[in-house]
Write a structure and sequence with these properties.
The chain contains five helices and two strands. It is α+β, with helices and mostly antiparallel strands. It has a two-stranded antiparallel ribbon.
């Protein structure tokens, strides 16, 4: 049963990363880029509501975590597995990423 749960969790992670905007968000976080919604919104060029929906899916899959600081919410990549997947997709080294 444990292996099945592991497969399901990994499949959810793959689903979360399988969208170009979400992949861009995670890659930016791993590369040390924008951490809050306002900065990501400007860099990616999508609305705050659309960005929030994507971040919610990434959080649900355990790919990113969020921390509130005053009125701002700061995000970070939280999954070594996701970092390895993104590195493989981008042809980069996961060791250079910020987790």
């Amino acid at each position: 049963m444990e292996n099945r749960i592991d497969y399901e969790r990994r499949a959810e992670m793959l689903k979360a990363l399988a969208h170009p905007v979400r992949l861009r968000i995670v890659h930016g976080l791993l590369s040390g880029g924008c951490r809050n919604v306002r900065c990501m919104e400007e860099r990616i060029g999508i609305s705050q509501s659309c960005l929030s929906q994507h971040l919610q899916k990434l959080r649900a899959a355990g790919v990113v975590t969020a921390e509130r600081c005053g009125n701002e919410v700061y995000y970070r990549a939280a999954s070594k597995e996701a970092a390895a997947l993104v590195a493989a997709l981008m042809g980069e080294e996961a060791e250079s990423y910020v987790l």
